């Protein structure tokens, strides 16, 4: 198998991972909206809120945001860069687009490192707020997972820009 096909297979594999993340994010959004509606209903009508729902909604929202960032990055959804790219010639457009992903990947590495630090601090804390697990699983862990996935997606996008025989894409095209 030649190198180009191998690199594009990596990109296709990352697409599958991102599609799975998109499905999880969609399920989390449905879950958090439903839980929030139940909580508002019980609090308003019965003056009997369910203990722990707010923390559960917070956990779902943090994971939703982390996975959503990965999906939007794969969809090439950074509006400011896209607008700017429209005015550049082909090769410059590719270079600027790749630079944006390179910077995104570098920031994502820092996110993983920060998430690991936060994980070590929060791993010692006891669960609070009604959930059976500590905040480490919905503050530090999403940072780590998001950072790793963003590094992989940014690398995939850079490979697509230079390996595929097409211009730097404008706008999302995956989901």
Can you tell me about this structure?
There is one protein chain. The longest helix has 44 residues, at 3-46. Helix content is 74%, strand content 0%. It is mainly α. The chain has one domain (3-163). The protein has helices spanning 3-46, 53-74, 79-85, 90-122, 140-163. The chain has five helices and no strands. The model has no long low-confidence stretch (mean pLDDT 88). The two termini are 28 Å apart. Helix 1 (3-46) runs antiparallel to helix 5.
- Count of strand segments: 0
**Principal-axis shape:** elongated
The SSE string, one letter per element, is HHHHH
Uncertain stretches: none
Gyration radius from CA atoms, angstroms: 20 Å
Comma- or semicolon-separated keywords:
175 residues, mainly alpha
In short:
With 175 residues, this protein is mainly α. The chain is built from five helices and no strands.
Topology:
Layout: H1 3-46, H2 53-74, H3 79-85, H4 90-122, H5 140-163
């Amino acid at each position: 198998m030649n190198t180009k096909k191998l690199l594009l297979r990596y990109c296709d594999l990352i697409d599958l991972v991102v599609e799975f993340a998109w499905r999880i994010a969609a399920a989390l959004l449905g879950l958090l909206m439903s839980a929030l509606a139940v909580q508002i209903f019980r609090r308003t009508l019965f003056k009997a809120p369910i203990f722990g729902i707010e923390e559960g909604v917070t956990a779902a929202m943090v994971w939703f945001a982390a996975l959503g960032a990965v999906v939007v990055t794969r969809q090439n959804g950074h509006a400011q860069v896209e607008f700017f790219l429209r005015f550049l010639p082909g090769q410059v457009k590719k270079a600027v687009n790749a630079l944006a992903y390179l910077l995104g990947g570098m920031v994502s590495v820092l996110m993983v490192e920060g998430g690991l630090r936060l994980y070590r601090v929060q791993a010692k804390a006891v669960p609070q707020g009604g959930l059976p697990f500590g905040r480490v699983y919905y503050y530090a862990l999403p940072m780590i997972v998001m950072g790793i996935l963003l590094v992989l997606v940014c690398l995939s996008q850079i490979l697509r820009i230079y390996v595929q025989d097409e211009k730097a894409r404008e706008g999302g095209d995956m989901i």
